[in-house]
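=== Structural record ===
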Amino acid sequence: METFHFPIPGIRISDYTYDLPENRIARYPLPVRHDSKLLIYRDEEIMDDHFRNIPEILPQDSLLIFNNTQVVPARLIFRKETGALIEVFCLEPASPKEYILAFSQHASSTWYCAVGNAKRWKTGHLPLFNPENDPKIAKIGLSASLIGQEADRYLVRFSWSADIPFSTVLEASGRVPIPPYLKREAEDIDLERYQTVYARYRGSVAAPTAGLHFSDQVIGDIQKNNIGIAELTLHVGAGTFKPVKTPYIRDHIMHSEPFEVSRDFLERLSAHHGPVVSVGTTSCRCIESLYYLGIQAAAGRDPMFVGQWEPYVTSREISYREAIQHLMNYLDKNNRDSLKASTQIIIAPSYAFQTTDILVTNYHQPNSTLLLLVAALIGEKWRSVYEHALTCGYRFLSYGDSCLLYNPESNKVKLL
């Protein structure tokens, strides 16, 4: 049995920052997805390339892990009789809790939401703000009622008169929830470009941005090069933008996100012997969480949730493949073809990666948990990577450029 020490208390968020000039934040996407620049970090060396060449750069026996979640136009604006505007940002369904059921509801649906200007909204039904008097939007008859509050989120019931599901209501009435640091309103271009080309299942309020660089052409070239692709679904929450406001990471409360993986996905992941490439931090968090869910299943527990600090206090007595096998056994025993769970895992320096050999990711905000994940993967070299990107004109954050980071501790990478 391995002995573990709780490593997180000494980590200060102020040690994971850098100067990000405003003019380095990409406000808009490039005209062509795969034209973004690509920084490659491997064997302590940094190289510059372009994302369109990633099919030739990745090892041919790699397995790419895509997060196929779809961003929903979850930002809605309502108006009080006084003229005050109330912004309602759907976070996750409350009743029913299943995303598929929530989006298929007719007449009403209840969600946990973030509410802007909430102090001006105490009671009453608010009609949707329709400044252009669009008859199609007016015909839907959407209104919102504030029915409760839990901590920093609100319980909002949406009601509408048109005989259409809530998914159609959002598509017609909602706005794309682009990141606040873009400092602009959503535009038509965001409808297409703040979405991956392989998005399938509605539920995210933020895009898995590492995937925004993949075009149909790049995906086709990847498949021609004997590189595998497997898909999971993790719905990205607004917590991904939540800044770390505590001096020490130990006091930060990580957000939780729901995900689903099929039994076929687990079987493929278990059988794969080449490098595993996480496309984005969401894919990384999910496949790393599977290991700890497998440990729970091995202990006879229902694998439903991975807590924030679970990886740092859990004895790792089984291999990753054994953990995945326990999850498959659990599904078989319960006659299920997919695993639905959620994860609050925080990946920070000292974290021991279980299966991520290579990470495709964008450049993240200073003082963020996403930057901590990068530092956990490549250590203090994250500073050199970010300094190089800033010096060489890379574009930052969601619509910015990409990097390909090789895990220096991965045995698979060392053999390449």
In short: The chain has two domains: 8-70+194-414, 74-175.
